[in-house]
Design goal:
alpha+beta, Dipeptide-binding Protein, domain 3
Length: 621
């Protein structure tokens, strides 16, 4: 996600799911469920004074030169624990790929930020500022051939409110934010919030859910649908997988939206294969052999050093550095306040001042990365740009620790009542080890011991969500507006499978978060957002580290990009599925044969390195 302010839909990806429903009910559905479902229908006519809107005037951003065909070979670091996108273990490496193939009612144009059609062709706003009306595309189909109708959206509400999906965030959102879906006919619906909100479209472009697929929504849901391939509405669908080894997505040749203005000339590869390669270094070797087509070069060692090989110097593989303009991931160190050592605010402050992030940037990261000042950078008026992250400062560490009665032990590490200032840092990527080693060595000077606990991505994330960590080294995806409830409200503290990984439990903060969620005045929400960020800073349970307002990637020369390489919000130039900005590349099979022949014979091409600053953020220019 990362998107700026009212930037578009992948935001909403957080709110919405990949599942479907149809008008016809099933004999296995309970009577109570039937009664709930019937409540979504109305015999009242749609209001006559609304103004229907659409958008077919924004510029296309795909290339007319794009060709269909070929296979994109990519990789993931771990095989997921489930194909479900809600419920336990659903936050995994595959979830985003599945959700990117599940369309919402509307998208947002990645450059203009205007609404554009997706599953809906037209939309309208009610004067009450909490209801939107939609005309659905009558051609839309699920991947199993069933038509997408308004009944599928009604079922989304029933599905997401169910306790059987074991997803508290979704239960809360679809109960306390979404009031109802009204189906006027098969292709006309309205969706209402429980309260008016500014920028209503950010909350109401939800996805449908398949009632015809989910035969029973009961206590067996988690296990029954753990490995189900759910029908979707997007350009690709999973066709084959081997647990622990690979997952294959294939393009739908007869995809219903392939000729629509904002989707045509996109999603060009016939298939996308994700191999499971648990180590980036091994994946790099696969890439150099041509078994993988694209590879991220964000890490400086890769961009500067590892590309000094024949494959790049002979022009077989290209490099591109593409700046974007999006909200920044909240990357940093999350301190678990349920651990005894972090219950004391002074100790949390001391920990932050013991982290020499600037040295990591200067040395390991070669000054290519930028310091992240707080967890909400890049949200425009909603960002509190006065906040500055706590810097490495031995004197401040000393003051805070002594204030709380700690003393240095014989080994130089702070100690109090037998408790040493020694904590485990959970992380998952081997490439991050060098960064953490520098932090570890610098922290020793401050009397803090870091024990580096590298786990595979699935195990790492599971441990963090179960709140068994001391310090979590991680980042979160972004949205159109700052999100506070899921990360900082006490409703999500002291329990597993929530995003409040610091177990923050502050009643004063709860009140402000609730006010922010309930406000219908944009100016008030902006003011509350700035206050909340300051309060969170004062709690000190998050140490922000780096931000990366660009992408750097390598790609074999048979992978082609448009003349305008990406969009303002592109955070992966070779994203095959993202319906907001992805699928712009294509594969030239003739150039692939030419390149592989040249590789065997040693023929050279001109090396290619591209730096594109078209969308470079003002704050770093």
């Amino acid at each position: 996600m990362k998107k700026l302010i009212n930037i578009f839909l992948p935001i909403l990806i957080i709110f919405f799911i990949i599942i479907i429903s149809c008008k016809k009910t099933d004999s296995n559905v309970s009577q109570d469920s039937e009664e709930i479902f019937k409540a979504f229908y109305s015999s009242e006519p749609i209001p006559s004074d609304i103004i229907w809107l659409t958008n077919d005037t924004d510029l296309e951003f795909a290339s007319p030169e794009a060709k269909k065909g070929g296979t994109l070979n990519s990789f993931i670091l771990s095989f997921p624990n489930t194909f479900r996108v809600v419920g336990p273990d659903s936050n995994n490496s595959l979830r985003g790929l599945i959700l990117d193939n599940q369309l919402s009612l509307l998208e947002m144009h990645p450059n203009s930020e205007n609404l554009i059609p997706s599953l809906a062709t037209h939309w309208a706003f009610d004067k009450n500022k909490r209801t939107m009306y939609f005309k659905l595309d009558k051609n839309a189909k699920w991947s199993d051939g069933v038509s997408v109708t308004g009944h599928d959206y009604a079922y989304t509400i029933e599905f997401m409110r169910s306790k059987h999906i074991v997803a508290p965030w979704y239960n809360d959102y679809y109960t306390n934010f979404i009031e109802k879906v009204i189906v006027y006919d098969d292709y006309t619906i309205s969706i209402s919030l429980n309260k008016p909100l500014p920028e209503l479209y950010l909350y109401l472009t939800l996805s449908p859910t398949p009632r015809h697929f989910y035969k029973q929504l009961n206590e067996e849901f988690i296990t029954k649908y753990n490995w189900s391939i759910v029908p979707n509405t997007g350009p690709y669908q999973i066709t084959k997988f081997n647990k622990g080894k690979f997952i294959i997505f294939e393009r739908k040749k007869d995809w219903w939206a392939k000729d629509l203005k904002y989707f045509k000339n996109r999603f060009n590869a016939d298939r996308v294969i994700f191999k499971v390669i648990k180590d980036n270094n091994i994946a790099w070797e696969y890439f150099k052999k041509g078994s993988i087509d694209v590879f991220g070069l964000t890490i400086p060692d890769y961009w500067y050093d590892k590309t000094k090989v024949k494959e790049f110097e002979y022009g077989y593989i290209n490099k591109i550095w593409f700046f974007n303009d999006t909200p920044q991931s909240a990357m940093g160190m999350y301190l678990n306040q349920d651990k005894e050592i972090f219950k004391d605010k002074n100790v949390r402050y001391a920990f932050a001042h013991a982290m020499n992030v600037e040295k990591v940037i200067k040395t390991v990261l070669r000054d290519d990365y930028f310091r992240l000042e707080n967890g909400y950078v890049g949200y425009g008026k909603y960002s509190n740009n006065k906040i500055r992250a706590r810097r490495f400062d031995l004197d401040k560490v000393d003051n805070y620790m002594k204030k709380s009665g700690w003393n240095r032990g014989d080994d130089g590490i702070w100690i109090k009542n037998g408790l040493r200032f020694s904590v485990d840092v959970v992380y998952s990527q081997e490439e991050h080890t060098k960064r953490l080693v520098v932090l570890k060595e610098e922290a020793k000077k401050a009397g803090v011991e870091l024990n580096l606990d590298r786990l595979d991505p699935a195990t790492s994330y599971k441990k963090i969500l179960e709140k068994k960590h001391d310090v979590a080294w991680m980042g979160w995806s972004t949205s159109s507006r700052p999100r506070f409830w899921e990360h900082y409200h006490s409703d999500n503290a002291h329990k597993p499978q929530t995003n409040n990984v610091t177990n923050n439990d502050d009643k004063e903060l709860d009140i402000l978060i609730d006010q922010y969620r309930n406000s219908i005045d944009e100016n008030e929400r902006i003011k509350l957002s700035l206050i909340l960020q300051e309060k969170i800073y004062n709690i000190g349970d998050f140490v922000p580290t780096f931000m990366i307002p660009y992408v750097r990637e390598a790609y074999w020369r048979w992978i082609k990009l448009p003349k305008k390489f990406g969009t303002k919000v592109t955070d992966n130039l070779f994203d095959p599925f993202n319906t907001s900005y992805g699928g712009l590349f294509w594969i030239d099979e003739n150039i692939k044969k030419e390149t592989l022949d040249a590789l065997k014979s040693g023929i050279k091409f001109e090396p290619v390195t591209i730096v594109d600053e078209t969308y470079k953020m003002d704050i770093i220019k």
